[in-house]
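Practice record 12: protein with 6-O-phosphono-beta-D-tagatofuranose.
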Amino acid sequence: MSWKNQHGEELLFTSSKAIFKPPKAMRGGIPICFPQFGNCGLLEQHGFARNKVWTIDEIPPPLPPNDSNGKSFVDLILKPSSEELKFWPHSFEYRLRASLGSNGQLSLISRIRNVNGKPFTFSFAYHTYMSVSDISEVRVEGLETLDYLDNLFQRERYTEQGDALTFESEVDRVYLSCPNPVAVIDHGKKRTFVIRKDGLPDVVVWNPWDKKSKAIVDLGDEEYKHMLCVDGAVVENPITLKPGEEWMGRLEILVVASSFCSDH
Ligand code: TA6
């Protein structure tokens, strides 16, 4: 996936060693983690959705009248194949709408429906690889005082003490019940990613840093300096859909020019 600003600058990170061949997930862009986030379940890491071929809906429902000014969009559809049904026997339909506003805002709306099978439960994340100039000059605001699960310490629960999150080593956390907005401030590029979300209570923050990067075959050894994952997610309280029910998860990211001060 590529998302460029009006200057043609790429806003999402893609590894120079990314493998574009299923079933390997691409290292970069915004992989969809469904029906499982992480390895907290019986499925492969981050579920199967990101490794599958989706279809484009050639005749998608129109945008709501109050939401169509200058927007371009595409709808992608995922339904379970016989292969998936073997290990995740649930009849779902997943419609992903990706749209770009006239102001450059990226919106992703997921609508996942239980098509009248038995109830099913899932966790979810928009695994968003942001391109940053230098991770040591990035700060994240909006997570202050929140509890988080730390994947580096067996998912133990801690409380964020900082006035903003900065990066000096590997970070792999799930911040819980996070309000809007979250600001990812890239001092080097003097820009801020302002993240708003709906239906996505949690925020995952991940940077592998140097040691972990060396163990990731599809990530350059130094590339951790130029990426940061900040994912709108459902982790702590997975979603259960009864037959006929639908869940919606919306992510909106607007990139704004920002000086060194960063009040959002
Ligand atoms: O971002 C959370 C996380 O689960 C990390 O623990 C790390 O494994 C990352 O996702 C990347 O996962 P992937 O399967 O894309 O290599």
